[in-house]
Amino acid sequence: MSTAHRRLVQEQFGRSAADYVASAGHAGGDDLERLVAWGRAYQPRRVLDVATGAGHTALAFASFAERVFAFDLTSPMLAVARRFLHERGAATVSFTAGDVEALPFCGVFDIVTCRIAAHHFANVGAAVRQIAQALRPGGVFLLQDILGHDDPATNAFILEVERRRDPSHARAYRAVEWNALLRGAGLTVMEEAVLTKRRPWAEWTGRMRMSEDARRALERFVHAAPEACRAAFDFRLTGDGVESFTDRMILLRSERD
Fold it and tell me: Over 60: is that where the pLDDT of 248 sits?
């Protein structure tokens, strides 16, 4: 990850770290339940949660793994996660700051998780290779992220929405791209699912500390977009504003060869 992009991610999430503890979309849902069900079946001893954010995924896996390592680029986010998990009594979680493209682990984890974060990785191929290296042979990578759209115009529309709201957003990948990235890192996809998450607009834009002017400009952009682009994400409009939209999430269970 370049120094400039690293600083951008740290700036964006350092100032909004506390808001992620209260984010319903990160705290739970069918998506997290699916990852937990996949992970629990392996009865893991050691789990690494990459880009842990406020620690919701680490907390869920700490309920059955012997040891969980929560890893994140942003120190204020790790501080929030440490406090949150301590309050929840999760005594088996350790916290490490660092870049996913340079993980300080090799062949030690039964499971690596990465949930709703990979769209911020500047070099997702390098990140996936590092994650594969951190797994033991036969270990499992459980991934969840925003699913890129197959239609170029629709994909360009939502990319612009995401980047205006959060400049550290790199891009979302399509299912075929994820399968190629994982295969190239020596990981075999065993199971795939696509789920949706409804994003309340005020909470979604507010979490990134958007100014009123920037939010209004983004709403005008959404209103001016082709109907087909808005419909692909079920944008619900209110007057000249936005009420909510729906993200599609891809979930992948892959195993290291």
Answer: yes
Q: How far apart are CA 166 and CA 106, in angstroms?
A: 32
The answer to whether the predicted template modeling score (pTM) of the entire model surpasses 0.85 is yes
Residue with tokens 């301590």: 86
H/E segment holding residue 176: helix 175-184
Long-range pairs of 82-91 with CB within 8 A, sequence gap ≥ 24: 82/55, 84/21, 84/54, 84/55, 84/59, 85/55, 85/58, 85/59, 88/59, 90/55, 90/58, 90/59, 90/62
What pLDDT is attached to residue 228? 97
Task: Note down the domain range covering 96.
Answer: 3-150+166-199+248-256
How many domains, the chain? 1
Amino acid occupying residue 146: I
The residue written with tokens 């270990």 in the block is 139
pLDDT range class, residue 97, cuts 50, 70, 90: very high
**221 falls within a domain:** no
pLDDT grade, residue 10 (50/70/90)?
Answer: low
Q: Which residue has the tokens 């493209």?
A: 101
Residues 125, 240: contact at Cβ < 8 Å?
no
